Amino acid sequence: MQTVIEKKGYDPAQNADNGNRFLTGNGYMGVRGTPCEFGPEGMAAVNLAGIYHQKGDAWREPLNAPNPLYFEAEGASLAADAGNILSHALSLDIADGTFHRETAFSLPGGVLHIAQERFCSMAQVHLLAQRVTLRASGSLSVSLRAGIDSRVWDIHGPHYDRIDFAREDGVIVADAVTDDGKTVCAALRLCTDEPCAFSGGLLSLTAGLRGGEVYAYEFIAAIYTSADCADPRGAALRAVQESPGYDALLAQQRSAWNSLWDDARVIIDGDPRAEFAVNYSLYHLMSIAPRHARDLSVPARGLSGQTYKGAIFWDTEMFMLDFYLGAMPQVAASTLRYRIATLPGAKKKAAEYGLSGAFYAWESQEGGREGCSDYNVTDVFTGRPMRTFFRDKQIHISAAVVYGLKKYFERTGDDGLMREGGAQVILECARFYMSLMTKRILSDTYDLCDVVGPDEYHERVCNNAYTNEMARMTLRTACSLCPQYATDAHPDELAAFADAAGHLKRQQPDPQTGVIEQFDGYFALEDASVDAVRARLKDPREYWGGAYGVAAHTQVIKQADVIALLYMLGGYDRSVTEANYDYYEPRTEHGSSLSACMYALCACMIGRPEEAYPLFLKSAEADIQGGGKQWAGLVYIGGTHPAAAGGAYMVLLFGFLGLRFEGDGFSLHPCLPKGWTRVSMNVWHRGTRRRIVCEALPS
Ligand code: BGC
Fold first, then answer.
1. Which protein residue has the closest C-alpha to ligand 1 atom 6?
2. Secondary element (H or E) of residue 1
3. Which of 34, 642, 655 is nearest to 283 (CA)?
4. Which atom in ligand 1 lies closest to the alpha carbon of residue 592?
5. Cis peptide leading into 158, omega within 30 of 0?
6. What is the per-residue DSSP string for 402-454?
7. CA–CA dist 433, 359 (Å, integer)
8. How confident is the model at residue 633, as a pLDDT?
9. Would you say the CB of residue 578 lies under 6 angstroms from ligand 1?
10. Any alpha helices (H) in 437-554, and if so which ranges?
11. Which of 370, 456, 469, 589 is catalytic?
């Protein structure tokens, strides 16, 4: 089974994508897949989970740690000495989460080979390790600089007021401090016998390399922050001093990854490309999974950078949760406990809008703080911020939290989270929808007006089909679960929920065509093709939505919306699913990486695996292929795509294998793509790990 992904040759235009493609991580931190001499200009970063900072009025975003794995050889730096490169390759082994780089440079006096291997320890999440080896063809004297890089890559920084460096007992320490007193501390044990100078976090030395001999530099580093403990400096110092050497850490790394793969590995006989793409997706989901935490969730761009403000979106509950439930149930619980712990933030947000209950942050940071700004996109032509309504109107986020809690309960059979506050969360979300609904004076219909559905290109619409059904699901879930748990629900209130659920407008399939209108008035919009709308762009980075966006007045949508409803909530006739798939797919730009997997799932539901297959690959290979949308107006939105990775898992399990959980058991209803002869994998269900094997009948 393939486990290595490799890119040969140096192309600076690939730096951003490679940083994502070759990402390593352990849930506590994510280290971009960049060569060791890269700094901020090459987007090198050690991204931390769950610790945020706001510089002045700029966007609040997560903190990056000073990079403790910096190494540079004079005359042999990819960007500065591109003319000297003889060969270059980057690779990642998903079997053990190790990043590799090998470059040969032509220097006066001989060829210098630089090899680099590094990983974020899965066994001890505060630790990072790297081994750099040098080999010269002839005798070379090379100036080296290695240590903790003081230049931290930030999008909306600089976040640190100061970074203090020291060297104690052979350990380099950096204390980075923000204006609100947050501290990020990096410590590095770097063994070298050569005499060196120390300044600004870096050791400088001159290495005399004898031809043919291998010189190795081992880096053992630790990161702790003030969010972890009272003395992050002491903790980081102790961690590197007590850490075993590189080889022992690597052995721990292999065994930690082996046990993760034991639960997660997917084998697809007959299609090595799909097999690698799925496992690569799962690698990313495992690399960013907060195994170390009790109540932390997973950001929309994982731990690949500060884009999307390091925030948690509906992506986690709706697209990633199935994988975590299937392979890492404790992580699933942690992501949902994060929602329970951030209920006060969600209640505060609702109150700010004059609403009741819990309105979860569209872009949730620590404590449930809303990271989404009123102006989330910058206009390419004027450079001015554009008013967007994601934060105010994407009310389906609260229902996503309910959906996640309910799914966790059904899949694990464990009501622990309900008792820990999950039932109260569900109640508060129902209260939120109650406070938003309006009743028509002349009829018994209730409406949810002025919302943004999953398709963000159409803002402030009424009765978005997806949103209304998710709100109804929330009200009904509250009615059925709240009486069983200690919440402050009042019986009259639950009766009102039941009544509202019965009267909230349902966008019904059209009796003739079976198509469900995405929102009131959608069918009256201009029916232009995606290509025609794209041709109207004056700048490729232009935002398609908002008041004047090219898609806003047309039926072209950003991503699965009605189709997401059909899959996520189910219960529609196959003919309805078919009619909507055929109607909406050609009108969908797939401008979000969350889109393709939903269409693939619906394609499987209507027995069209061959149509599902390219959409599935698009999701599974989102970070292998790179590219994708990098801009929303002038805002950089690149990074990894964990929701697409989770979506690929969903297509495999619930689409191609057709797995349906039934009580403690399950059944399979496969519709395998051509060429797949056998699929096998493990899935946790109701506290037991089940083995799934699906074989195609010989044709
Ligand atoms: C999508 C959202 C998604 C967010 C983060 C946006 O482009 O429209 O649905 O939650 O990205 O992935």
1. 592
2. none
3. 642
4. 7
5. yes
6. HHHHHHHHHHH---HHIIIIIHHHHHHHHHHHHHH-EE-SSSS-EE--SB--S
7. 9
8. 66
9. no
10. 465-481, 491-503, 530-535
11. 456
646 lines ligand 1 (CB under 6 A): no
10 Å CB burial of residue 525 (0-12, 13-18, 19+) is: middle
- pLDDT tens digits, one per residue of 11-55: 999 999 999 999 999 999 999 999 999 999 999 999 999 999 999
Q: Classify burial at 375, counting beta carbons within 10 Å of its beta carbon; exposed 0-12, middle 13-18, buried 19 or more.
A: middle
Name the 3-class secondary structure at 131. strand
State how far the Cα of 596 lies from the Cα of 620, in Å rounded to an integer. Answer: 10
The structure tokens listed for 425 are: 């969360």
Question: Which helix (H) or strand (E) element contains residue 4?
Answer: strand 4-8
Coil, strand or helix: which one is 217?
strand
632 has pLDDT over 80? no
Q: Residue 643: CB within 6 Å of ligand 1?
A: yes
Residue 456 designated active-site: yes
Instruction: Write down the pTM of the prediction.
Output: 0.97
- Which tokens in the block code for residue 438? 């309006």
| Residue 313, ligand 1, Cβ within 6 A | yes
SS3 100: strand
Rg of the Cα atoms in the chain: 26
Distance of CA 314 to the CA centre of its chain: 11
Secondary structure percentages of the chain, helix, strand, coil, to 5: 35, 25, 40
Q: Over the stretch 352-403, which tens digit does the pLDDT of each residue have?
A: 999 999 999 999 999 999 999 999 888 999 999 999 999 999 999 999 999 9
| DSSP codes of every residue in 665-685 | EEE----PPTT--EEEEEEEE
